[in-house]
Amino acid sequence: MPRLPFSALAASATLVAMVPLGAMPASAAEVAIASQGPVVELQVTQQVMSDPDKATINAGVTTRGATAVEAMQANAAKMERVLAQVTSLGVPENRVQTSGITLNPQYDYNNNQPPQFTGYEATNTVTLELRDLDRIGPVLDALVAAGATNLNGPNWAIVDNSGAKDQAREAAFAQARKQAEDYARMAGFGAVRLLAVEEALDYGTPMFDRAALESSRGAADAATPTRPGQVATQITLTVKYALEQ
200-234: string of b/e by CB count within 10 Å (b at 16+)? Predict the structure, then answer.
């Protein structure tokens, strides 16, 4: 069962005097709101921590060749084996996406001599979305066994975070109103009136499991360990309240 604790991250406030209605022309995209008293503007952030139910992994191969064609052909052969392994692992095709193909000339820089051309390097990378989190480690090991030389991830996430967004939004709105009422009380006013609300979404910083990139250090028969932890769904509200008697 996902855990959804709240976490208030930041809040800021600005108290300004509202220009009376009609004192300034409004553009087509703006609507002036009348207020006889001062206005407090608050920026409040709330986040909800949830258990992830999916992870993305970048896997690829890098090859070199004397010519661009040789590098690309060698890369294609190795990448076919990696993709065949992905299929054998049961990853649906719609959750496998080519995310980058590069081909670059390589040079050798030594002893302050002019660079010497050494050939070409080709890289092909795919992004996998996995829903069975217990299989992340074995999947990484299987990809390496199939010839993958580049791994990045896992990046934990939530398939549907609409519920977490609703909870974060409700908590942020309640906090903003309470802060506005506190400012009204401290300033000698008796009530607040909502004037405007703006919302910004932030899905948090991706959390990577570095152990997944160090599988070669463990025993040969040990699966790469991973820990999904939790991920944050974050919402920031900017609200304006009029302070009224």
Answer: eeeeeeebebeebeebeeeeeeebbebebebbbbb
| Domains of the chain listed by start with CATH number | 6-50+160-206+231-244 (no CATH), 54-157 (3.30.70.2970)
Q: What's the rounded Cα separation, in Å, for the pair 195 and 18?
A: 11
Nearest to 243 by CA among 173, 192, 195: 192
DSSP state of 74: H
Nearest Cα to 197, choosing from 160, 218, 170, 159?
170
**What would the pLDDT profile of 30-61 be if each residue is shown by its tens digit?**
445 555 679 999 999 999 999 999 999 999 99
Angle between helices 68-88 and 136-145 (to 10 degrees): 140
Element (H, E) at 194: strand 191-202
**What whole-number percentage of the chain has pLDDT above 70?**
77
Its pTM stands at 0.70
